[in-house]
Queue: 4 jobs
Job 1
Amino acid sequence: MSLYTITGAQLAFGHVALLDHADFSLEAGERVGLIGRNGAGKSSLLKIVADLSKPDDGLVTRQQGLTSVYVPQEPEFDTDDTVFDAVAAGLTHARALLDEYDAVANGLADEPEGQEHDSLMSRMNTLQSALDHADAWNWSTRVSTTLQQIGLNGEARVGSLSGGMQKRVALARALVVQPDVLLLDEPTNHLDFEGIRWLEDLLVSLRAGLLFITHDRAFLDRVATRIVELDRGRLLSYPGNFTAYQTRKAQQLEVEQVESAKFDKLLAQEEVWIRKGVEARRTRSVGRIARLEQMRTERAERRNVLGNVKLDVGQGEKSGKIVAELTDVTKRYGSRTVVDNFTATVMRGDKIGFVGPNGAGKTTLLKLILGELPADEGTVRVGTNLQVAYFDQMRAQLDLDKSLSDTISPGSEWVEVNGQKKHVMSYLGDFLFAPERARSPVKSLSGGERNRLLLARLFARPANVLVLDEPTNDLDIPTLELLEELLTEYDGTVLLVSHDRAFLDNVATSVIASEGAGKWREYVGGFTDWQIQRDRSQQMAQEAQKEVAKEASKDGGAAASRNTQQRAAKLSFKEQRELEALPAQIAGLEAEQKTIAAQLEDGSIFTRDAAEGTRLTARYAAIDDELLAAMERWEELESRRK
């Protein structure tokens, strides 16, 4: 039996049907990922399931005694509360039962007999059953156990915690209830990579039914056992994770397109028939006319697939070849070193992702690169002709009282993008804002819509360096994919802070990662490439330590161990020369591969000289192996030098 069922639900916001005779069910142990466009009604559906709101029409059924807990995108707390009190607030009902039980017990002591005594005794029995059912006797232990499982300090003040840690407190407050159904709205917001991985492990191990909204595709792949898409008022179910959904969705859209084309063709034929001359009118059938009227109604009611956002960024003049050059840069805040002896060069066209725990100093490092923050030690050389455009994570750049059109183009009805003038209404339409909303205030927008508006404003201004701080928060998946495509084709430089692993994989050409204690290191490739290289480096370091310990054991004594460590840590003269030559060797291989790619690109070489085409193809593949070997050797020698 389903834990929860919705049948024929209808919900409208103004003239837009968010739910149009929608059906939904949740089985025990299921983990359902709810996806859909911004503004499609996902949060509204989640609140209906949480019993915080009702549909306009339709039947909602749930198992008797079902406990469900809803965690919103931005949980609210009393910032003066301790973490223990904030989590214990999830057990308000259980604690209220316990308080009443104590009051009844005291009343019984004052009324040893009589009618009042019997009434109190009956109430006590009822309360005892309710307390047993809610497992409320040991509520304090439950809170302490939950805090320990989630890694929270119960004595800390909620107001002193980061956004990511407050998200953990909200989850702890939900989990301490031991719900049958857990409802999460954008649970990965404000979490760093370690926090997201921790949450994935936690949710996969839960026995409760789970319904969650997220646009994090990697998270959906790991956690979801079923994807439900809210599409044009309907709820469509796809078994499996997000990757399986993508395959099935593409097939479904193809079928839908073919069926719609057939329907439209038949409707056009019927319209021609009904307008024919006198002879045709004599042979009209009442049934055929009725069918035509029904088809007209169906066509009017058919809601086509929503259009995609049309993204285009205003290209500024080219910056200098070198955007920034940092040499032995150190930055401290008091006694804490945020950046320690960091050296890097950012070239025009680089797309760099910055990764690390919340509070590691990603924003500080970005400001150092752009010359907005002075270094305490070392030198920062900023390139020439930089036109920088910022995407602010907290959306502080938006004036909530301004209209959408004034936000995009203050005092004018026109926007200029890449030398072409466009009316602000049309430009807002490119970002899926209807003309009637152009005069609406920013505060009327949802979180995802505000992100879209900020992107619209960002891309309306010419720039050759884009600084994007968590641009993917609240964006729907189709818009995310289009943003990825735009940034990949963008000629300028992109500096990107994001916790969206798929986004980093698809956009970043290199990653600058926090290694702890103010140490930062650059890795080639995206998020997955960084993880592979980091894990390989850690594995090599562990093997080197084992080898040192092994040698020390053979030689015997601490002195021999120290000598062995010194020998292992230092490079020979030959190895030092090899390390110095490797960057040039890697660059040469990459340049050769790029040249070959240009020769093979249009395929004409196989027509002119098939043997040469085959040779170049084989050489291109061989360079991949040589590059991997050279990079691994560089990693090995570099780790031993430090």
Job 2
Amino acid sequence: MRRQPTTPSIPEDPAPAASANALFSSRGAPRSDWQTVRNLLPYVWHYKWRVIFALACLVMAKVSNLGVPVLMKRLIDTMDVGPGDARALLVVPVGLIVAYGVLRLSSTLFTELREILFAKVTQSAVREIALQVFRHLHGLSLRFHLDRQTGGMSRDIERGTRGIQQLISYSLYSILPTLVEMALVIGFLVLHYDIWFAGITAIALVGYIVFTIVVTEWRTHFRRRMNELDSRASQKAIDSLLNFETVKYFGNEEYEARRYDENLLKYRSAAVRSQNSLSFLNFGQQTIIATGLILILWRATVGVAAGRLTLGDLVLVNTLMIQLYIPLNFLGVIYREIKQATTDMDRMFVLLGTHQEIADAPDAPPLEVRGAAVRFRHVGFGYESDRVILDDVDFTIAAGTTTAVVGHSGSGKSTLARLLYRFYDVNSGGIEIDGQDVRGIRQDTLRRAIGIVPQDTVLFNDSIYYNVAYGRPEASREEVIAAARAAQIDTFIRELPQGYDTPVGERGLKLSGGEKQRVAIARTLLKNPPILVFDEATSALDSRTEQAIQTELMRLAQNRTTLLIAHRLSTVVHADQILVMDRGRVIERGTHADLMRLNGRYAEMWRIQARNAVEGETDDEEGVAHA
């Protein structure tokens, strides 16, 4: 019994979506060609009537194609009259000539009908699988994406998707017509000629197929090596371009070019070996075909000389072999392409088979927000088993209040936000929202209830409007502009030549740090979540910009449950509760006044930052005086 599809249905002609685990081994082991084809069949069979009609057109096209040389033989034998024979004009077979043209036209007509019928099947299957890959990647954990290089992964997906399209097209669209052609030709030779014609043809076919398979299997590792080196070169190039400014800072353009060229040289060497092996394969295939054609023509010529065959038979046998030669040669190309396609798809299969570390329970209910109180209940967590990041962290953020978390770098502050979003699951304890453990509710509803303004705001390479509207894509234009106005960025946007349609560049690099932060605030305002997380949202800004952004953040946090992660203590004095963390543990808690009276770690940090701030202001004043 076939397992039911697990991916959500897709509008506009959904194909059955088998789950990633059903399609591919979770270990990412290479799959056989037949297994891959079998996994694709449910997507194709969803359009079974189109497939049936396409197969009928396929058979009709091949029957018509076989009838063409048969009619040509009849035509030649009918016209076997002597030169100058007056009866020639009386025996012109007009019907055979017309039938010859009709059969040629019919072959083309049925072939094109087959392509029309099958085009939607192929493209729909490719669309469904590509979408499944995309969804699966978004369903994988943050740990997975932090361990991957985006350039290489995008190249693997690109090649894998293209490989799927080629595999469907070739295996279910081209191989079958070729096999039908072979069966019809061999069957005709068996019925109408002696066994030698069919025997020679069959031996040539078997020899050709065996040679193609053996050599293609041998040269597959060349293609695999090419893919690895291609991905590696792409990774180096994209990583270097994403860090364009860093490369310029250190003047390392030539160093980056040399690193890239090292991979290109290795790729060139692998590509040359692959091409040489392909040339050997092509020559061997042509040798087998030429040998079979010579033997067939020799046998037919002997038959004509002995009077057993006519000239029409000689032409028919020759034409059949030529007709068979074309699809037979194409079969070799198809097999090579399928092997290359499955090689290209291996890495994407590993992605599709990757275990989804953070997954919803099958019957997980949606989050029910009843005030948005957040509780970290004796949480223990580590990214690695031998390294503890959080140790027995226990606190509550009452609904509508602000809790700030401070501490030195590496104390575990930002990890709290990642666990609240459920990018990772806690090792011990639990995190609750209004009494509901986040591990037992649907992730999409959890994340809809939380808004974040991060330290490093990364924007899409699109317009400012798109990036603000990303907080709630279905929002109206008026709502988007209202959110930008509330974040104090509307005036700046309207002064730009393209206004809200201004592109922000790769990762938002065309905007300043303060402008990107305001965009982040605007899209969070548009999302309008009951829970807010400010993860060092102003630490990378100058003092004046920080003060302006801080005011907007405080206004945004009003009447919302807020987790404020900060390094600068001046930004947390207004918090209802301040937690001081050190080495993954909460060592102090209370209001700003409480902690100053305690005269512990928080008070020490406050005095150090205050002294540094005074020294910084003195340095600024001296710089102005000397100027």
Job 3
Amino acid sequence: MLTSANISIKLFNRKEEYMKKKEFKSSSKKLLNMMINSIYTNKEIFLRELLSNASDALDKLNYLALTDGSIDINRDEEEIDIIRDEKERILIIKDNGIGMNEEELEHNLGTIAESDSLRFKEDNKDQKSAEIIGQFGVGFYSAFMVAKKIEVLSRKYNEESGYLWESEGADGYTITKVDKKDIGTEIKIYLKDDTDDEKYSDYLEEHTIRNLVSKYSDYLRYPIKMEVSNSRLKDGSKDEYETVKETITLNSMTPLWKKDKKDITEDEYNNFYTDKFFDYEKPLRVIHTNVEGTVSYKSLMFIPSHAPFDYYYKDYKKGLELYTNGVLIMDKCEELLPDYYSFVKGVVDSSDLSLNISRETLQNDRHLVTIAKTLETKIHNELLDMLKNSYDDYKKFFTAFGSQIKYGVYNMYGMNKDKLKDLLIFYSAKKEDFITLEEYVNSLEKNQENIYYASGETIDKIKMLPQVEQVRNKNYDILYLTDYLDEFVINVLGEFNGKKFMNVSDSSLDLDTKEEKEALKKANDDNKEMLSFIKDALDGEVIDVRLTNKLTNHPVCLTTDGEISVEMQKVINAMPTDENVKAKMVLEINEKHKIVDKLKKLYKEDKDELKKYAKILYSSSRLIEGLSVDNPTEISNIICDLLS
């Protein structure tokens, strides 16, 4: 292995004088400047590109050995070395791959956007073993973002001479024949001087290199080695430490997702998840997929057991890590997940995607769309399986991420409601637990035509709503909705398996027999003038006042007419807009309650006093619904007057 002791000019001992400086092809100056300043948005990418090129060189040599039985290589010795010379500000990337001769250096490095790896992939596209990463021929030039000068020393397999390619940028390059003992390639980067804005010497720091290898190149199939400093106890000492230098492998090489599922333990999955995604709790489910076909990819996805602290903040960014043959291309590929599954963590590895020239972003690609669709199906099926076979886990999941599923139903005018409705669960008054809509429909009472629901801040508050009484007396189940999104979701769904949703607080709710309807109509007709007077006394706060037989013990309740319920009014008006939405409210008075006799008497004897009662009844009904009273001082004075 090359060490700092022999990284000297004698390593590049020339047997010939410099050849005349050559200019880059392909309008070199403009193109190279564009690559350095525009194509790559992140300077640290250069290390990923050089390590990927080194991996490609090793792949090519291995493939050559597979196709030519006379070639004998020792795979145990294949490696990529990173060598740091902090004093001279030099970084070296070395591999013992196939190497390049003079013609290939001229063609690959002298002509920008010419890729030997791309040609190799095209020539061997039917061979699954040829997992070559590079394809554009520009990755090497990303090193000029951090380098003021680059030297490439290379000797091709089965050739006697080595060649040195040198360049300081767009002005051109030289190629010189030199001695080189071993096959392979060494790229020597002379780092730029530090500035106020950029500290290029960071790329010589041990922790920086280790972090970049871990981030971008952890799963390259060949060991990436570097000399590091470690602290350890001195021999024979119990408390005295010494710093020693040793060469270690920086990357883990074999991605978990490329292993056979039968060879992976649950602990390995859990440890991978907690380490990679910085979670303290193991995931609820693991989805490990290996797809071969028109589009081939491997994926390893996780359904977390809880939401991260920033999940419901606007700055949260969804997406899966995207790899190509073990090289990280995107840290968060948003296109792979729909918004309603944004909680999923994981990785996808495919060599079939069309990347842009910098390999930092994806081009519009039908392969990506295909992968995204199959991943969505996998996630959906896994959630359904959890719902059916691990209900406690599913309730835990839904507590954490149910709002995201509901938003998926509601968003885009319900475009995805049919996909997601089977994943919804709501609290059942009968079961006193969460159930699916399918469970509700399958347990309907005889002659029950609707799915009934009630909304409120908590389950306990909903239980005490007067409107719940009549429905529960019929032995009908009621879904208790406590999430601010619930009613919007229900409205978008409209119905489930042919059964319409009905709010128990809807003024149109009708559970009466024919006889009960006739008796109630007569009671309202007989008291029409009194009810109209009460409505006028409330000065436009309600659209109607009527007697009702829905209530058993409660004297009064509020119902609504139209699509906007009381709870929806609360939610909409709590949003940061200037819009003030008002539900069309109806004040309903229990015809069997003794308060009705008092109202009738006051209507005949003291209408001014009746106005006071009307305001108290209306204020009471608002308080029951969790609404504020607009004039609390007035109501308090009225109550005190009536009590005195």
Job 4
Amino acid sequence: MDSTLQAPTPVGIDPDSSEQLMDEYQASQESVRPSRTKIVATVGPSCGEVDQLTQLVRSGASVFRLNMAHGEPETQQIFVDRIRQVGEDLDVPLAILVDLAGPKFRLGELAGESIFCSRGEEFFFVKGESKAPNELQSSYEPLVDELSVGDLVMLADGTVSMLVEEASADRVRMRVQQQGTIRSKQGINLPGVRLSVPAISVEDHKHAIWAAKTGADFVSLSFVRSPDEVRTLKDIIRSSGSRASVIAKIEKSEALERLDEIVSEADGVMVARGDLGVEIDVAQMPLAQKRIIRKCQQYHKPVIIATQMLDSMHESQRPTRAETTDVANAILDGADACMLSGETAIGKHPRLAVEMMNRIALATEESIAGQPLRESGSKRADGLHAVTSAVVHGAGTMAHVLEAKLVVVASHSGRTALALSQQRSFVPTVGVSTFETTLRQMCLLWGVTPLRNAPATDVEQLIRHTDSWACRQGLATRGDRIVIVGGSHLTAGSNDSKMASGVHDIVIVHEVECLGSCEI
């Protein structure tokens, strides 16, 4: 056979290996069809290079998380620059989520680095220096003062628990309820304990300002307990000249007690199941997740499900059956996005993890295609004008009834695109805007594809552009219908004040002509 017709053997693959490996390699060189459910990938040593980030985008990721608990701004800025470079190289909007560490409490140094805690054994939290192997210290200095008899202390991600039996001025005595091994610097969880520590530390404040100035699209706040903390972070970001959205991470029992207020105030929500599953009874975790998702639907806020979604893929090339079921159930419950943490940041197979998440999402979405449009949230707090709300509802219904191939929305702030996303229409939605920030924030919206360089202020130009683009992409052919949603600025020419007013009062049904392109 002519050697020029043979595909080159990828580095690291034996020419005699199975065809499956070759198929996987070839598939990795091409972009996959992205799911409607968005994928958030955490950036770290395993995926921080430009070519690795490019692979993740081609595999289905559209939002990249920077965990400030594992890197200072100087280090994270390198990743910001690379993500922006990938977005330019691929000519697609990519969003960056800066995740503030929050007040995470940790154990001090232990003798021998680890201690096995036997059930019934006594341990102490002490002020000052430890003088015995069973005396523990905390990075949170007021801890001894704020613990009371009957409080539960959870260590090692909740695998070890101790009950406070006595509290004095300089120490608290605890007895092990659930035995296990603890290690230096591990996290401490205090379910139900009311602490004085602020949600936004001095370090978090500094990182929030950096996130705003570097152009982050989302900033998430850890260990939220009240809506006031969300408002404080918003003030910090706005005073730094940023339009970044604030994501409230639900991982404290206090947050569940004030869930309505927090969801209403935040721009989006993350169900941070790692700490939440320790702060509350782990048996209640699935119900809490469903409750948070429903609340976000009522308020029209996007929701991300996070932590241990494909945890076994830190090492394995395939997830467990339980993990695939977990991802599918999150999507069936109504999640807008699913997040990968260590799977992409430090795992051995970051690309495969994103590909698998995308595959599960696509398969799950197929099962719910054709369902009736979701009704408008009963407590919506997205700032959408009443006229726009009605127009969006009508546009979604029209697209469904007319079997349109595409819905296009011209949006200044992204709120109209969010409203269309919340309907859960399976007619593909394309978002256009004059603002790159708005396009990047659309990357978190279920079912919305942000499109760069589309004329968002002139209806005739937008129709021609969309017509040609849809035909080139194979999304429509001559005679198909496209529904376009916009404000009166579209027919009046460019008018920033009208566009900024947020009123969308026009719906146009266009029959595709494949203008300026070859019919697919």
